[in-house]
Amino acid sequence: MKTVDARNIPCPGPVIKTKKALSDMSEGSLQVLVDNAIAVQNLTKLAGYLHLESTSEKMGENDYRVLFQVGGTPDLPAATTEEICIPDSRQRGTIVTLATDHMGEGDEALGKILMKGFVYALTELEDLPETILLYNAGAKLSAEGSEALPDLKLLEAQGVEILTCGTCLNHYGLSEKLAVGSVTNMYVIAEKLMGAFRVIRP
Q1: What is the pLDDT of residues 138-153, one digit of tens each?
Q2: Residues 183/164, Cβ–Cβ less than 8 Å
Q3: How many CB atoms lie within 10 A of CB 24?
C-alpha cells in the first residue's frame, strides 16, 4: 500500500499530492493521511472525478485516512484541481434525528431497507448535516452489525457529528457495541434540538 502524508497542508496541497501519487499508479491501494474533515471532503470529491472507489475514516482527533483503490491509471484534467477544493459542506444548524432503525410505517423489513438507503443518500448530498442524533431504536444504527455503519462512518470522517443516546444503547444491550460517533445524553440532545436551524426526521 502506498501512503501520502498530507497533514498540516492547506488545500489544494492534499489534492495535488494525491493526484500526483495516483498518476504514478496503475493498480493497488493509496492511503492519504489528513488532519481535517474538509480535506476528507475534497479527497472524496477527487475520487468521484476519477471514478475511483474510496473509503474514509476518522482515526482520532484531527487524524483522518482516505483510502483509494486503483484499477487503472486515472486521468484528471489539471483545471479541476482548484474546483475540488470546496468549502465546508456541513450545514451549520442542520440536524438529522434518527429515532428508529426503520423508515415509515407498514412493512418493517422494507422500512429497514429504506432507512439504510436514507443514510446512504445523506453521504451523497452536496450539503451535509452538522449533526446526526440517534435515539430509541435509532441507536441500533450506530452499533456493531448495523448495515448503516459504513455510511455513518463516512459521514463522521467528513466532519458530521454522530451522537447516540447512552440510555438507549443501554436499554437495547448495546452499551459496549457503539461503533461510530460518541455517546450522549438527553440534555445534549435537547440542547442540540433547541439550537437547531433545521431538524430533519425521516
Answers
A1: 999 999 999 999 999 9
A2: yes
A3: 10
